Amino acid sequence: MKSDAFRRAAEAKDFSLAADEFADDVTFRSPVVFKPYEGRDALSVVLGAVVQVFQDFRYTDQIEHGDTAMLVFEARAGERDVQGVDILRFDDRGKISELIVMVRPMSGMHALADEMKRMLEAA
User: Fold this and answer.
1) How many whole angstroms separate alpha carbon 13 and alpha carbon 49?
2) Residue 123: what pLDDT?
3) Fewer CB atoms inside 10 Å of the end CB: C or N, the chain?
4) Could you tell me the pLDDT band of residue 110, with boundaries at 50, 70 and 90?
5) What Cα–Cα distance (Å) separates residue 66 from each residue in 30, 35, 95, 117?
6) pTM
């Protein structure tokens, strides 16, 4: 599957393993901010923080159809259990051109936002 390298990197908490899988102009749409992050450098910073915030991260489902993949996950953010979906869209070269993350419940998303803010301010 096209999303296998991304999945392995997320599970290893090391997105450098999938760096070549992202298009240079990749767009990341976060569950906690309105404006998307643009480009590989911005994505690298955000994903580096995310792997430190999520605890007990695991994918429960991986679905692909055409140029779209959805990876369903469970994790903890602080004291909150969360469920979420990574939606990957691939360009015509097979590179990830868009990553959308959705998280539930709202209390878990707020815990994620608080932890991400702390991590990104430190970076």
Assistant:
1) 10
2) 61
3) C
4) confident
5) 23, 27, 13, 34
6) 0.91
Residue 40 CB neighbour total at 10 angstroms: 15
Residues paired with residue 87 on neighbouring β-strands, in sequence order: 70, 100
The letter for the amino acid at 93 is R
- Joined tokens for residue 4: 């296998």
pLDDT of residue 63: 98
**Residue 109 reports pLDDT greater than 90:** no
Q: What are phi and psi of 121, to 5 degrees?
A: -65, -35
67: which strand partners? Answer: none
Cα-Cα-Cα-Cα dihedral of 81, 58, 65, 89, to 10°?
80
- 95 vs 80: CA distance, rounded Å: 33
The domain over range 4-122 is classified in CATH as 3.30.230.10: no
Per-position DSSP letters for 54-109, written without gaps between them: EEEEEEEEEEEETTEEEEEEEEEETTEEEEEEEEEEE-TTS-EEEEEEEEESHHHH
* Six token digits for residue 38: 């643009």
